[in-house]
Design brief:
The complex is a heterodimer. Chain A contains one helix and eleven strands; from the N terminus they run βββββββββαββ. By secondary structure, chain A is mainly β. The chains are: A mainly beta, B alpha+beta.
């Protein structure tokens, strides 16, 4: 028996671990590359469903509150050598307060796709890029994180 | 009113049954938006059911696809048949000591070269497909695409260019459908689009234009293994939240709540299993004798088909009633239930022509649907609900052979019931879930959903980030023991005082069983 529940009395919802006050911070890593360090390859490719080239990223946030009610996550990819915006994608979504794993106590979601509209796959290979994730809560508070690397075909 | 019907399909219970052949024994799963994907060696075939209410000249349907598509007309039969077979069923067995146990199931071309049509729009192809005029387009930008569509008789909602732009920017193709001039809304049929792609995706951002709140979406994905959402999260529902005693009538609400807990962008898996589970459902080609049909009179021709047990569809109903119209004053559905009950006269009856059309428009289309299923190893049904505001990213589905491959549509639990020895009335119930949790239910009328929300028990027991490989990362896991702890920590007062003896009795009973 894993547990004996009793429908009939209320304990009330437990506070989520993400409500704890901490320093505002954010992280961004390429999806599937949790050990990424600046200068590493930034994998990109054709999305499996087709369309413009893309890079998938994972974004995590600590400190901000209420991101389960709504947040804006903006991904900007910038060519450091040519002073050129490669992609600018904004997602309006709600994040999940993780309670297990390395992200326990932080807001996370599924992979976010940075799209490179207007570029072909070969146009992107080898570019030195900075990718910035800016997360804004419903009150307008923002936190940003970025990484730099070399766009490399998947 | 004119509008562009951008919703992939809108539910219509009557259409879901095809107006006939609805089997009341089966748990008919209605009122969901359904889309089928079949992946085979770098090509995705999408079957979409389109529902529309309005005048024929108001009908317009536009959908983006990532590669140059072929477009054909399809049949409702597969949608209903496979949906019914994979609908989650919550099976509650009743274990009543001293009584006989019982169980109840509760379920809830015209080929043409691409032509630059001026103004930055390329007409890739244009052809009659079933009841539709189908045009495949590409555009330099959304503005010129909208202008082209309006110039060519497609009535569009305001603000469409903004939602079209991401798809135009991604170089996607657009399939635009209108009804042919001699067709009406009753002729609308599902369509099949096939195009090169490595994964299935729903253009949900475009759907948002005409979506409704909490729109239920069922996605069937057939391919080499179980399909999982790639850029959406996956939720496992908390079966403690299911109204087991009320026919699991809140299943969709539980999924919806679980998806909300996952941020709104998530799917639950209703079913995953081998495609062989669906063998022979739709290919009825060899179950009729063409020679006999080609010699039959109208009534026996109809009876042979409607009493065959083949899956019904709107397309079949329409064809039968077109070929053998009901007598004056008799509606079509009633007539088809018993063709022999009426005097039927069909001018210029030609059984050969009728049978040819039945074969080409119904049997062959269904056989092709069956072939698509048979070409896959595994089938997965995923479910979610979404509000228009949540439709900010197109869900992508990929195949993953590392996760548990089988998800049964049937979920089971047992209700242990104690009865008053004298009156026979049930005095307490303990619901034992498939994962071993035991829930004391004070009375049969308890609103489980309300109590779950009161307790703060989540609708999702697990939220996982899955992709094409590996077992995924669990982001949230509900500690089921915490439910008991929450009770122990927070439960006090009249309810517990009233019910404590029941727990003691059950605990004693459990000890006796163990002994």
């Amino acid at each position: 028996m894993l547990g004996l529940l009793w429908w009939g009395c209320a304990a009330g919802p437990a506070p989520t671990p993400c409500e704890a006050v901490g320093a505002d911070e954010a992280t961004i890593v390429p999806a599937g590359a949790d050990d990424f360090v600046d200068g590493d390859a930034l994998p990109y490719g054709r999305p499996p469903q087709g369309g413009s080239p893309y890079s998938p990223y994972r974004v995590g946030v600590g400190g901000l509150e209420g991101l389960g009610d709504g947040a804006s996550v903006r991904l900007e990819a910038y060519d450091l050598d040519e002073d050129l915006v490669l992609g600018d994608t904004t997602y309006e979504l709600r994040l999940v307060c993780a309670n297990v794993g390395d992200n326990a106590g932080r807001w996370v979601g599924s992979d976010l796709h940075q799209r490179f509209d207007g570029f072909e796959l070969e146009d992107l290979d080898g570019r030195n890029a900075r990718v910035t994730a800016t997360v804004t809560d419903l009150s307008g508070n923002s936190v940003a994180a970025w990484l730099e690397g070399v766009l490399t075909p998947m | 009113m004119t509008f562009l019907h951008l919703v992939l399909f809108a539910s219509d219970p009557a259409a879901a049954c095809g107006g006939m052949f609805c089997n009341a024994i089966q748990p008919v799963d209605q009122a969901a938006e359904r889309i089928f994907f079949f992946y085979d060696q770098g090509r995705v075939t999408t079957e979409v059911q389109i529902a529309f209410e309005g005048e024929a000249d108001e009908f317009a349907w536009v959908v983006p696809v990532p590669g140059e598509p072929t477009v054909e007309v399809s049949n409702d039969a597969m949608f209903t048949t496979l949906a019914n077979q994979t609908t989650p069923v919550f099976q509650l067995g009743v274990d009543r000591p001293g009584s006989i146990g019982c169980a109840a199931e509760m379920a809830m071309s015209a080929d043409m070269a691409p032509r630059e049509d001026g103004g930055g729009v390329t007409v890739v192809s244009e052809e009659a497909v079933g009841p539709y005029l189908s045009v495949v387009l590409q555009a330099e930008n959304a503005d010129v695409l909208v202008i082209w569509l309006e110039d060519n008789g497609y009535s569009l909602p305001d603000g469409l260019d903004a939602v079209l732009q991401p798809y135009v920017a991604a170089g996607q193709y657009f399939v635009a459908l209108k009804l042919l001039s001699d067709k009406d809304a009753g002729d609308i049929a599902p369509i099949v689009m096939s195009y090169a792609a490595e994964a299935a995706s729903i253009p949900i951002q475009l759907t948002a234009v005409a979506a409704v709140a909490d729109m239920p979406i069922e996605v069937f994905v057939f391919g080499p293994s179980r399909a999982v959402p790639d850029n959406y999260l996956h939720v496992d529902i908390n079966e403690a939240a299911i109204n087991w005693y009320e026919g699991a009538d809140n299943y969709r609400e539980v999924v919806s709540a679980a998806v909300d807990e996952a941020g709104g962008l998530a799917f639950a898996t209703d079913y995953a299993g081998p495609a062989t589970d669906f063998s022979g459902l739709l290919d009825w080609t060899d179950r009729f004798s063409p020679d006999a049909l080609r010699e039959a009179d109208p009534v026996s021709w109809l009876e042979t088909i409607v009493y065959s047990g083949m899956p019904g569809s709107t397309q079949l109903t329409n064809l039968l009633l077109e070929l053998v119209p009901p007598p004056d004053g008799v509606d079509g559905a009633t007539f088809l239930q018993c063709p022999g009950c009426y005097e039927v006269e069909v001018e210029d009856w030609d059984a050969v022509v009728a049978t040819d059309r039945f074969e080409t428009e119904i049997l062959e289309v269904m056989a092709e649907q069956q072939a698509r299923i048979d070409g896959a190893a595994w089938g997965t049904r995923l479910f979610t609900t979404m509000d228009p505001a949540e439709m900010t990213a197109d869900p992508v589905f990929v195949f993953n052979d590392a996760v548990e491959q089988t998800v049964l549509a049937t979920r089971s639990a047992t209700s242990q019931e104690r009865t008053n020895a004298f009156s026979g009335n049930v005095v307490s119930r303990t619901l034992i879930l498939g994962d071993g949790r035991e829930i004391v239910v004070p009375d049969g009328g308890e609103d489980v959903t309300a109590v779950r929300e009161e307790l703060g028990t989540p609708a999702a027991v697990r939220i996982t980030d899955l992709s094409a490989s590996g077992e995924g990362e669990v982001l949230f896991e509900h500690d089921v023991q915490a439910d008991a702890d929450a009770f122990n920590a927070g439960c006090s007062g009249e309810a517990s005082a009233l019910l404590a003896p029941a727990v003691l009795v059950l605990a004693a009973a459990a000890r006796r069983r163990r002994a």
